[in-house]
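Hi R.,

Here's the chain you asked about this morning:
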Amino acid sequence: MEPQKDHFTFKVFTVDLLQKASTAILTVSNLPQSLNKVVALPKPMGGALLIGENELIHIDQAGKAHGVAVNPYAAKMTKFPLADQSELKLRLEHCEVELMSPENGEMLLVTRHGEMAVVTFKMDGRSVSGVSV
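And the predicted structure, written out as tokens:
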């Protein structure tokens, strides 16, 4: 029996503390189960960067997702559509990311082993149309 894949869901809520109410404003389902970190992104990129052991996925404010596989395990672990950069052979467990240039859509990624890479968000006007490392 094949293990269950892509069962994670990313949800964004609006919270009204005075009314003690919340409403889901965005839901993206069928995401890879290896995702373990969420990083909120400032404008102009906006949205969130989801980081897994094998992939990076950007989700914009409308719920559109673009991702990249950074090692060969991604293809075995998920059916989620990812751009293939598996030749990088990066392992993203316990990695850190830091904004370098929001104007150029760039972040610095450092793995737990000290490998460094630049994550680039391809901008199409005011929208992210792709992610690469």
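Residues 35-132 form one domain.

Let me know if you need anything else.
M.
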